[in-house]
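--- STAGE predict ---
source: upstream dedup step, 1 unique chain passed
mode: sequence only
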Amino acid sequence: MSEPAEYRLSDGRPFPLGAHLDGNGANFAVFSDHASKVELCLFDARSGRELSRIALPQKTDSVWHGHLAGVKPGLHYGYRVHGPYDPDHGHRFNPNKLLVDPYARALSGRIVHNEANYGFRQGAEYDDHLIDTRDNAAFIPKAVLMPAIDRRTRDKRLLIPAADSVIYEIHVRGATMRHPEVEGRLRGTYEGLASDVMLRHFQELGITAVELMPVFPFTDEPHLQQTGLSNYWGYNPYCFFAPEPLYGGEAAVAGFQEMVRRFHGAGIEVILDVVYNHTAEGGGLGPTYSLKGLDNASYYLLQRDQRHYVNYTGCGNTLNMKHPRVLQMVMDSLRYWAGRMKVDGFRFDLGMTLARRAKGFDPNAPFLTAVGQDPVLAGVKLITEPWDLGPGGYHLGGFPPRWAEWNDRYRSTVRAFWRGDKGIIGELARRMTGSQDMFEPRTPQASLNYLTSHDGFTLQDLVRYARKHNENNKENNRDGTDNNLSDNFGVEGVSRDRRIIAARERRKRSLIATLLLSQGMPMLLGGDEFGRSQGGNNNAYCQDNEISWLDWESRSPEDRLFHGFVRRLLAIRRRNPVFRQNHFFTGRPLRDGGEKDVSWWHPDGREMNEALWNQPDASCFGYHLGCDENGDSDFLILLNGGKRDISFQIPAGLAPLRWACMIDTSYDDGSGQDCADPISDSYPLKADSLVLLKASGHRSRQHG
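--- STAGE serialize ---
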């Protein structure tokens, strides 16, 4: 293809990576250590026709670069990279394949699935040694040259303390696709998520941050393409800088920025669920979209034979975070989203993969060290999923300071206790007070506490189904975990039996009250507050439909009561610092001669000892939270995970305090307002319920 004079390149600079306007045109820079030539390909924005291929004229420290004069924002481009096609030595260069710039700030459209996207020949032989010569430009999104961000109008991060944070996990598209009050054109978009009606819901609920499921550009896995399903969750990215076009089209960047601005205006932080552990290119028999064609041997971890990929992620490949340029790409991405797009934090999918070195997990791994010292990332929230699928891949509690970790032991313990499992009250006590055994010397906020997340049952389904129902995923119900720690109360699925409905609602209230009264940073799954169900599907990653989308209209009277209960709990947490401590409890007196910061009690009024903690059939206990000189009250929390009612004796040393019932999950609205009689020496603690009692003032005020 010819090179018209108006498209000739000068040398340019090897930095910054990506495409950047400078007033005289744009500089292009892309890393590839093993390439022999890199061509910049320009496209007509309307027709998609390729206008020119121009070789980047210079290579500096393995960065290919050039400057194109006179171009303006909106230019569509991609790369073709020449080099050896030699899978046995780790190289998969194929200039017939148009590649997405890994630093692209915006993309036009989405990947169109076609066999031409594979670097090797498809067919009966299905051998990745045979190069495919078909051009795939028609099926690959083009990178879009973006204008510089106006620094005068940039947003600012909110920097809400971790102790005050309540996170709400939500899917950008699924949140509003069924919302009748969101304008039709905005449903499923960034701006729709931050529309007035949505912001009002979040503010009234009382959350402080939305954690967005992946918003990097992603595509469908090959097996989903074959079954007619699609990737809904988005954990299959191929670019780490652009926002997903599905949620905003050509205006995705502006829509994302406006969304962040509006959330910040409402006092709500934006946290991104980010996937840096693998890409959508899969293993050796996967497609070629970007990194595989740019420099496969550098970007991916390869096995000793160089042809096959290390697969710690279960997704076919693993990014090579040991390579300085790959680490730079990930750090540049984080700095871009935090610095330019003003997001407030990140949740790292399979974060264990990012912290691996030759011998496994290392809290001083290059990535963790780089993040810890980066000034742009100072103050952002760092949340990790502390596991992957590789050897020794579970490291809950092992991450360094500043990091919070998804605490699946908290999730499983709370579920098991309320399901009726006995003999785990000691484990529950540790989890509710911040999991000090795992996270010290960090703070309780190192424990990201959750009951439900995108991966697994919703809260409603946790009390409706004893087993998963993933038939719609077309995998013969083999996908998704079988260890749900759930309870159907004798009927699988929806029931019209009022006794079963009441029992399920009580269980939900006890579960959510446990979460929101625990020390640590709580996370709610979007829709749990009003009874969202996925029909028992505990792995709805491929259901971009009403199975996954939030239903804002079909609410029962029980759903409305539960919504109000969650709001009330969040208000209690917000108004009482004792439920969001910055330090772990010690079990020692707060001051000379005073009460302990926490004390644990048996239903008969005795203080717990080792023998009582270890009773194999124990299912009931309570604990007292003492107030310090700045506190306004004491609290007594009583939990009965058993199947019979108990008269819980108020400990003798606490009986003189005037106790009022704030929460009793055995009541339909959880308020306990029917407890009109004064609470003196005992409380009638119903089965399967949690009670929160509040003392009306300082002990000194009541006995002075």
